[in-house]
Write a structure and sequence with these properties.
By secondary structure, the chain is α+β, with helices and mostly antiparallel strands. The protein is built from two helices and 16 strands. The N and C termini lie far apart (114 Å).
Length: 290
């Protein structure tokens, strides 16, 4: 009886020891697998980091650097040319040419860079070039999207204008073929300074201005006009006199001139001398006041 009890107790101890040992074994296997995976992951990361080398370090450096932008010139000038061609039918054909300044914008230490040029146009890239169709002041916004942050920078550029116009012969309004001689200075909106000069040269079959008698001297009237939606709202006569030379030069300037949307500035030329045939040309520059 005692022997039987001893055997039963030994069996219980053996079963208990076997269950405990199997549990420990399972736990040890799992721990070993996890440890092995961790070692493999760390080893792989070390190898990957070594293979990336300086490239990986440079990327981290870029993220820590400050995003900045620049432009090759803070201001530029667009050029406008108008040539009036009359083939003898008193119906002038206008030939207009625009040459716009080209800005180059650059960025440093950015991610994916998007440019907003302030006139409705966009570009993508570390470096971008852009031409503005109209003079004015433009705020350029650059946005950099990196792996961990978004940064923005802005810069202001100014576009001025230089113009040249050569128009067909002006005639006396009393003549049967009289026509208006009006030169549009194409001003942009904003606060402007306008400076330039007008040249009229004798051009016709009548005797030159220098050979005329005092009663037939050549005559010129120069009027600066301000318009709104095509209608005249103000004007100023800056020259109204006779002259006895084959070329007459009249300077003009307008400082701190405010131009609102729909408004314009033009030069109107008139002569009271029936026998006058003059070919006018105008050169001017418009500076944007910031």
């Amino acid at each position: 009886m005692i022997l039987q009890n001893s055997r039963q107790q030994s069996n219980r101890i053996f079963k208990h020891s076997f269950i405990f040992t199997r549990s420990n074994f399972n736990h040890m296997v799992k721990s070993t697998i996890l440890t092995s995976l961790a070692v493999v992951f760390i080893f792989g990361a070390m190898i990957g980091g070594a293979s990336l080398g300086a490239k990986f370090v440079a990327l981290t450096s870029d993220e820590d650097s400050e995003f900045s932008i620049s432009v090759d010139s803070i201001s530029g000038t667009n050029y406008y040319t108008l040539i009036e061609v009359d083939e003898g039918d008193n119906d002038e054909e206008k030939q207009v040419t625009y040459i716009n300044h080209n800005f180059t914008f650059s960025s440093l230490n950015g991610g994916a860079v998007t440019w907003d040029f302030g006139d409705g146009n966009l570009a993508i890239g570390d470096v971008a070039t852009h031409e503005y169709q109209n003079p004015g002041i433009y705020s350029v916004l650059a946005m950099s999207i990196g792996s961990s942050k978004i940064e923005t920078e802005s810069i202001v550029v100014i576009v001025h204008l230089e113009g040249l116009a050569e128009v067909d012969n002006m005639e006396c309004e009393c003549a049967p073929t009289a026509k208006d001689t009006v030169i549009d200075l194409v001003p942009p909106n904003g606060m402007l300074d306008i400076r330039g000069y007008l040249v009229v040269e004798h051009d016709g079959s009548s005797e030159s201005c220098s050979l005329r008698n005092p009663l037939q001297e050549c005559h010129l009237r120069v009027i600066i006009q301000k318009t709104e939606e095509g209608s005249l709202i103000s004007e100023e006569v800056i020259f109204d006199d006779n002259f006895r030379s084959n070329e007459k030069v009249v300077d003009f300037e307008m400082d701190e001139l405010a131009i609102l949307p729909g408004q314009g500035i033009q030069i109107r030329l008139e002569t009271d001398q029936l026998r006058d045939w003059h070919k006018p040309s105008v050169e001017w520059e418009i500076s944007i006041i910031s």
